Amino acid sequence: MNSKQFACRWVLKHQHKLKQAVRSCHLQVKHALGLEDYKTYEDDSQVTFKYSEMTTTFAEPHQLRSKPDVSELKFGQVFTDHMLKVFYHQALGGWQKPAIIPFENISLHPAAKVLHYAIELFEGLKAYRGIDGKVRVFRPDLNMRRMNLSAKGSGLPTFDGIELIKCMNRLVQVDQEWVPHTEGSSLYIRPTLIGIDGTLGVARSESALLYTILCPVGSYFDKTSNNSLSLLADPTYTRAWPGGCGDRKMGSNYGPTIRVQNKAAKKGCQQVLWLYGDDHQLTEVGTMNIFAFYVNERGDKILATPPLNGLILPGVTRQSIIELILEWGEIEIQQRTITMHEIITLQRENRLLELFGSGTACIVSPISSIEYMDTAIQIPTKEHANPLYQRVLDRLAAIQYGHIEHPWAMPIE
Ligand SMILES: *Cc1c(COP(=O)(O)O)cnc(C)c1O
């Protein structure tokens, strides 16, 4: 090989490092010249971490934890042996190399933005062990799209979702023994992105940490209940509002809901039905989307869910249910505003068939009652033969557990 060929090969091999060095140099020169930096995250949409650069450090035998009995498991209490970490430092050219490491605590500067201004977002998706033993992840591309939208809304860096899917798949593979073997249980995947700059200014993050942790889960809701929900609908509380960020999975949306959840619990209800506006529109149930199945005045069966108007988290399960119903073609699906007045009228006229919540954690959760303005409204969700919520749940489970091959379930090789 002559020296020119050698040089060219060297450049090809090291081009990513050169690019990082040039970018970092460019920033420093601009800074030295006092030029304003107009660089935004949109500009670095091609800038991402790469699965191909990921390193893996396996836990030592003494670090491995014993695996719990999943039937005993409460949601999110036990974590697996490894985690994924990727740092972002603007001063170092952006995203650093991803690393799978033994599960560990993270160390943060006490001024880290996440700790003061909740500059953080998260995602939730699941890996399922199929009847053929293969592990499949459900529609991770949709979670990646939503995660990048949340990042843009929080002044956090964006990345190529495909690269994170590949890194997370590898993490699940490393901890694959943790994917439960019983149908109904799964491995919950929690990607999280936090702003870690040690500066107190309320500003976009120049340093961030993206990490992913995994936990085996049984069922999300308390097994002692008969698995149908009682809700408190109190119009004095609001989860999201127009122009806000209720349609993003940002941590700041969840902390303020705890006091309302406590109030629901005091009244003997399991979850909060979030209302909005003077007409008491139904928006979400706890951290789930909501669906109402009813018969209209002409006798047609309709499945309705609130529209993605900014108040609603665009759930992957919600979208999947809408797509299934469209595919089945038997029931009309409507994305529109539903009010408490309408629910009461439908219920009174015996035209309300079912009310259910949808989300990755429980997939579909039937609702049996709503406590609203001091009256208890009974919902006959579980009083029908072959209810729609069960058909939807069965179909999604068949896809997730590999009973049917379907493009929504992505096998991990
Ligand atoms: C996560 C979440 C959902 C459900 O979204 P999925 O993608 O189906 O899990 C619904 N509402 C809220 C408020 C959520 O945080």
From TrEMBL:
Alphabetical UniProt keywords: Amino-acid biosynthesis, Aminotransferase, Branched-chain amino acid biosynthesis, Pyridoxal phosphate, Transferase
Biological process (GO), any one: L-leucine biosynthetic process
N6-(pyridoxal phosphate)lysine found at: 249
Cofactors that this protein relies on: pyridoxal 5'-phosphate
Keyword match Transferase: yes
GO CC annotations on file: mitochondrion
Highest taxon in the source lineage: Eukaryota
EC assignment: 2.6.1.42
Class of the enzyme per the UniProt entry, highest EC level: transferase
One MF annotation (Gene Ontology) recorded for this entry: branched-chain-amino-acid transaminase activity
Reaction(s) catalysed (UniProt annotation): L-leucine + 2-oxoglutarate = 4-methyl-2-oxopentanoate + L-glutamate; L-valine + 2-oxoglutarate = 3-methyl-2-oxobutanoate + L-glutamate; L-isoleucine + 2-oxoglutarate = (S)-3-methyl-2-oxopentanoate + L-glutamate
Presence of keyword Translocase: no
Family: Belongs to the class-IV pyridoxal-phosphate-dependent aminotransferase family.
Protein name from the UniProt record: Branched-chain-amino-acid aminotransferase
